[in-house]
Write a structure and sequence with these properties.
The chain is α+β, with helices and mostly antiparallel strands. The protein has eleven helices and 29 strands.
Length: 547
Amino acid sequence: MRFFTSIIFVLILAATPLQGQVLTNKSQFTEADTLRGSLRAEREYNVLKYNLQVKVVPEEKFISGYNGISFKAEEDLPVMQVDLFRNMRVDSIIFRGKRMDFKRRHNAVFIDLVPQVEKNAIDSVLFYYSGNPIVAKNAPWDGGFVFEKDQQGNPWIAVAVQGTGASLWYPNKDHQSDEPEEALIGIAVPNDLMNVSNGRFLGKEILDDGYTRWNWKVNNPINNYNIVVNIGNYVHFKDRFRHLDLDYYVLPYNLEKAKKQFEEVKFMMNCFYEKFGAYPFEEDGFKLVETPYLGMEHQSAVAYGNQYQMGYLGRDLSGTGVGLKWDFIIIHESGHEWFGNSITAKDIADMWIHEGFTTYSEAVYIECRWGKQEALNYLKGIRNNIANSTKIIGTYGVNSEGSGDMYYKGANLLNTIRSIYNDDDLWWKTLKDYTEANRHKIITTQTTEDFFNAAIKYDLQPVFDQYLRHAALPELQFKQEKGSILYKWKADVEGFDMPVDVTIEGKELRLYPTEKWQKLEQQVNSPEAVQVQEDEFYIKRQNLKQA
């Protein structure tokens, strides 16, 4: 969700996909932003494992427990930064059996490790904490816990913190560049409720205080914001796709609707296995969990709140009708398992790697089921949600994810690159190679650019630069001069060039515009006779008046 589109705020928010907790359009940054977004000396460690044990008290909206953080020091580590929101209390921090001194600054906790952890050494801390976590006002667009009641009056509790940060509710190294290799998650809830978290269910323990602890284990690297609780009066049913377990947790009165609606998962998996490779977390299985908010891509426990409707809560984000043929939340949030959860951007500034590719996965699914033209119609339709007012890539090192155009514009950039390839076999091979080569990796935009550039002889760098690092679209200009039709690109990137397909008198051909005027070889009476293949190339076109 990373949900999550272009924020011309109120208008687009109502029609956009999940846009996690958006931080866009910040031009000034604080010390708190730097502490959260930068890799300082106090963060020179690699997280190996989280052992998160938490009790949730629904009526008090209160949580307490600890996180055991196992780590490897990348450099000598006398002081360790662990993130936890300042409204949460630090009860104690235990290192080698002793309580450690610590200091708090904004949402960061600095632990004095005595003695320091030497470079390459493996060690751990136990971080005990408690408090009333922030309650979301409108999850998933703002971060926090959701404390609701289901239709039968039972507590229904969940959490969504992408963008805002997982440190909103548990202590961790809250930066996308570092994921635990595995995680144990034990959540204690009242006896009449169930908790569903990520990974495989290990069993439950009846405690002495009217609570039951539900234990889960994640066997793969996982983003901090993907670790979740889902607490409710759930019923469970299951299915299977090839070797992949499909587990579904829904409210009992929605069971029959869920059994019908979730059949789409197998169509989706069949498509995504073909186009992106096998599901990246087979060891942890795949789950859909009904939630009291719209949805989120929580790894191996995807949040589903689309109310068993087609489209986006019954609406078509593309305005074409194509978006009503499938359940948006199932497809978009599950697409994140490949893009965002398996392939993760090192810095939140590169979040288009999550959102652009996942939005494109919607079109991939459409193409698998209903053909390429329907996919192109959908991609063209969602352009109405693009602002083109701010660059897609954010500011590095300060927890800034850039423009919400990362969703629809990012998807249309990928479709444009596919059209530049002009070879669908090569395109699908490259896309699948990309997802498989970067499986469970943390990458940058440059990694992505280099990968797609290497597959063809044409240099895509100016294209990536224009679409990702500038707000405006490249403009293909035409003019008539002395009986000839001239054409060129107008763009922000110096030396911009990009091939584009056009139709002239029913014949398709490829032009190779640059920033210099070129003469159209075909004889036509006016620029209007040159029709750009706008379904396949997302550009601006301008016919200049004669001087």
